[in-house]
From TrEMBL:
Record region (Disordered): 1-55, 145-170
Organism field: Urochloa decumbens
Protein name, UniProt field: Argonaute 4
Family statement drawn from the similarity comment of this UniProt entry: Belongs to the argonaute family. Ago subfamily.
Keyword RNA-binding: no
Biased composition annotated in UniProt, kind: Pro residues: 11-21
Length: 910
């Protein structure tokens, strides 16, 4: 959780709000309000309408541990911390805050009434009960070696290392470092507010009280020397490391946080993984990182980028520094001015000396780094050089760049654990964390039970499916197959061709096998017009040229535009031809295309390919039985549109890449298996969707209008009376924004189309990145597909539930956490859970139940696929583009090319 510090902290707390009033935040009121007009009260997440009853009971454990809290009249006092050096410069270094505050506590414990602190490492500090004064200023002295910072002259040990300053500075660098610490009262939070969390009456106070408890957990781990990443902590224990190659390691640790649940306060503890830089000699890291076999082959420009800001320990002086960069020249040639005392009168001479000779004089023989650049651990103006072989990377430093596909799959593979193993690991971690010994938790009267929470879940029956010729399909254990069955609505594949971008493959056999499988499934597929082989001379050309050249061939040889193109990619699916090819087909020409990377092509593979092709060309592979018999509560009888909404962001390290917002919407009511998608770019890292409603004069350019109009034309000229919205990827702190900002934009878009029309709305958020897991009692297997939980570990008031619709084959299943924030349609708990379960069975790309409803999966796919249209490397200079969709005060982002109208309403993302 971020800290909410700022000017607001200087003010006294506001008066309490009467219980029946919903306060309005200033930022929610846009523009000036007309006088005497009541402000629309803020919508809050709805209360649970009861619990589900359907399904077969199953006994489960969950990784929630019961916390008992002694009821208390005490208050948490929040103080604002300001750290400065002696000369009033603010302290910017990370990690130094904890050292200073620890020292402060040792030095002044009696002046501070022996209080324990909960410090977040940055600007916030909490105590139980007040400190003697509201405003405090202390001076804290830290010994140089322990700060891990360079001395003020940028040299670690005065004239002891290359690049030291003049004599006056030299003396100063031996002195310990002095800090000024201001601790000023900001607010008080009643500890009784923890009780509100358990009753589900969240308020600023109760969320703040939980935040204090979470900060205590973080501090507890920091004191054990862990790396802390948000609410996760990582010990420096090599048995928790896995090598991912390229100098990067996965590090296993634990997440722990407090949550308010129906059974009271619980500690949610889970296994967590982060990436760290391989500790040890810098040169070993660089050799690994660049996959070379000798230091001579290292690309030093790349090395400089990889090393910047990493921390090292020097072997000869055992001191810690931060890497600024590399020396311009290598160690034997890089000189620096060394001051030497001259005789007895204390005068100094300055001589230029190479780094190599300097260390030689000190009796340190350099074995291999004479011919390599030095590490510069100084500042821009005042470098400090160390030969590379004297530098070791210190452990537990996060690696924050994007992982390669290989590293990512290796991480997933090496960090999975079966349910039993995960339970054992969590049990051990809880014992080892020893929260019972934490003085701060004890003074809050908090103790954590060592047992996993016990829960009764329910297993919902799998929905029945229909295949072609009215045949039934029965799913067993979350999967089904089409053996001896036809697809329910098939397309015909004619006017098509194959393009081969140099894939090594017997294209004739592939076409023959594809046509044989197609006819078995009821798809009419003619012979392709032509197979276009890439001209060998083009293989090394720029990607866009390769794609253009292929299209020139197609234009010159085909009688007209093809309806479908099968595209063979060399090596793997995510090769560089993919994005430009899709863009050309979908945005410029409106041609449906299916790519494949023909490695091991067998019949199951071809069936899967045909399912995608069928869906893209307007067919359907299977339907729900309740869909065909019009038996879905609230949906089958009344025109209903289902929306899936998602915003996808770039990987960490691609901060200027625009985010991509996708809205997927159902069509052909009363079906709920057919969808289309609209995709827009928006400002990087903006989680709220900014393009749902975009009035421009008399037009609305937003994403919602397109969906509504398409529903109207595809559903027999009916307007939807019900609008069901599935929203992915927002955290609990943003729930009120979803129902007050996004929902309002959708309502505006509806009114803009027709002022008289007022459909009913239901809004459901789906979350995958939470830390709640379930384990079967008495079985080592994952929970069976269809498992739903809406008690014990769920919210005390709100309408939420966990569902595992899929069969977890490897590792431990991650349930999806659904929160129904708003429901005007009026689903009962059972109806909502069964509806969500059904929507996990309509995904046209596979014959398995998926872990989150199909409209959300489709929104991910659409965002990812259209995202490949933009070349993100060239993004930074693209901000001058016209008409980018932006949020207030942000840089314009380039618009995505619009899909061609021929494919705009297709399932191109399938």
């Amino acid at each position: 959780m971020g800290s909410h510090d700022g000017e607001a902290d200087e003010l006294p707390p506001p008066p309490p709000v009467p219980p029946d009033v919903v306060p309005i935040k200033a930022e929610d009121v846009v523009g000036e309000l007309p006088p005497n007009k009541p402000v629309k009260p803020k919508k809050l997440p709805m209360a649970r309408p009861g619990v589900g009853r359907k399904g077969q009971p199953i006994q489960l454990y969950s990784n929630h541990f019961k916390v008992s809290v002694k009821s208390t009249e005490e208050f948490f006092f929040h103080y604002h911390v300001n750290l400065k050096y002696e000369d009033d410069r603010p302290v910017d270094g990370k990690g130094i805050g904890r050292k200073v505050i620890d020292k402060l506590q040792q030095t002044y414990h009696s002046e501070l009434s022996n209080k324990d602190f909960a410090y977040d490492g940055e600007k916030s500090l909490f105590t139980v009960g007040a400190l003697p004064q509201k405003n405090n200023e202390f001076t804290v002295v830290l010994e140089e070696a322990s700060t891990g910072k360079t001395a003020p002259n940028g040299s670690p040990g005065g004239d002891d290392s290359p690049g030291g300053g003049d004599r006056k500075r030299v003396r100063r660098s031996y002195q310990p470092k002095t800090f000024k610490v201001e601790i000023n009262f900001a607010a008080e939070i009643p500890m009784s507010a923890i009780g509100q969390v358990i009753r589900g009456e969240e308020s600023e106070n109760s969320l703040e009280a939980l935040r204090v408890l979470d900060i205590i957990l973080r501090q507890h781990s920091a004191k054990q020397g862990c790396l802390i990443v948000r609410q996760s902590f990582f010990h420096n224990n090599p048995s928790n490391f896995v090598d991912l190659g390229d100098g990067v390691m996965g590090c296993r640790g634990f997440h722990s946080s407090f949550r308010g649940t129906q059974s009271g306060l619980s500690l949610n503890m889970d296994v967590s993984t982060t990436m760290i830089v391989k500790p040890g000699p810098v040169i070993d890291f660089l050799i690994d990182n660049q996959k070379v076999d000798h230091p001579r082959k290292i690309d030093w420009q790349r090395a400089k980028r990889a090393l910047k800001n990493l921390r090292i320990k020097t072997l000869h002086a055992n001191a810690e520094f931060k890497i600024f960069g590399l020396s311009e020249r290598n160690c034997k040639e890089q000189t620096f001015p060394l001051k030497q005392r001259n005789g007895n009168d204390g005068d100094c001479d300055t001589v230029e000396i190479t780094v190599y000779d300097y260390y030689k004089k000190k009796g340190i023989e350099l074995l291999y780094s004479g011919d390599l650049p030095c590490i510069n651990a100084g500042k821009q103006k005042r470098p400090t050089y160390f030969p590379i072989e004297l530098c070791n990377l210190i452990p537990l430093q996060r690696y924050t760049k994007a992982l390669s596909t290989l590293q990512r799959s290796s991480l997933v593979e090496k960090s999975r654990q079966k349910p039993q193993e995960r339970m054992t690991i969590l049990n051990d971690a809880l014992q080892q964390s020893d929260y019972g010994s934490d003085p701060m938790l004890r003074s809050c009267g908090i103790s954590v039970a060592p047992k996993f929470a016990q829960i009764e879940g329910r297993i919902l029956q799998a929905p029945k499916l229909k295949a072609g010729n009215g045949e039934d399909i029965v799913a067993r254990n979350g999967r089904w197959n089409f053996t001896n069955k036809k697809l329910i609505q098939t397309c015909s594949v004619d006017k098509w061709a194959v393009v081969n971008f140099s894939a090594r493959c017997n294209v004739g056999n592939l076409i023959r096998d594809l046509m044989r499988n197609a006819s078995a499934k009821g798809i009419q597929m003619t012979e392709p017009f032509e197979v276009f082989e890439e001209n060998p001379s083009m293989r090394r050309a720029a990607v866009s040229r390769r794609v253009d050249d292929m299209f020139e061939q197609i234009k010159s040889k085909l009688p007209g535009a093809p309806k479908f193109l099968l595209c063979l990619l060399p090596e793997r699916k995510n090769c560089e031809v993919y994005g430009p090819w899709k863009r050309k087909c979908l945005a410029e020409f409106g041609i449906v295309t299916q790519c494949l990377a023909p490695m091991r092509v067998n019949d199951p593979y071809l069936l899967n390919l045909l399912m995608k092709i069928n869906a893209k060309l307007g067919g359907l592979n299977s339907l729900l039985q309740i869909e065909t018999s019009l038996a879905i509560p609230h949906v089958s009888k009344v025109p209903t549109i289902i929306l899936g909404m998602d915003v996808s962001h770039g990987h960490p390290g691609q901060s200027d890449r625009p985010s991509i917002a996708a809205v997927v919407s159902s069509r052909h009511w009363p079906q709920i298996s057919k969808y289309r998608a609209s995709v827009h770019t928006q400002s990087p890292r903006l989680e709220m969707m900014s393009s749902l409603f975009k009035p421009r004069g008399t037009e609305d350019d937003g994403l919602i209008k397109e969906s509504l109009l398409d529903f109207y034309t595809s559903s027999g000229k009916r307007k939807p009376d019900n609008i069901i919205i599935f929203r992915d990827g927002v955290s609990e702190s943003q729930f009120t924004q979803v129902i007050n900002i996004e929902l309002d934009q959708i309502i505006e878009a509806c009114k803009f189309l027709d002022g008289q029309w007022s459909p009913k709305f239901t809004v459901i958020v789906a979350q995958k990145n939470h830390h709640t897991k379930f384990f079967q009692t008495g079985s080592p297997d994952n929970v069976p597909p269809g498992t739903v939980v809406d008690n014990v570990v769920c919210h005390p008031r709100n309408f939420d539930f966990y569902m595992c619709a899929h069969a977890g084959m490897i590792g431990t299943s991650r349930p999806t956490h659904y929160h129904v924030l708003h429901d005007e349609i009026g689903f009962s708990a059972d109806e909502m859970q069964e509806f969500v379960h059904s929507l996990s069975y309509v995904y046209q790309r596979s014959t398995t139940a998926i872990s989150v409803v199909a409209p959300i999966c489709y929104a991910h796919l659409a965002a990812a696929q259209v995202g490949t249209f933009l070349k993100f490397e060239e993004m930074s200079d693209a901000s001058s583009s016209q008409g980018g969709h932006t949020s207030a005060g942000s840089v314009p982002v380039p618009d995505l090319p619009r899909l061609h109208e021929k494919v705009r309403s297709s399932m191109f993302f399938c």
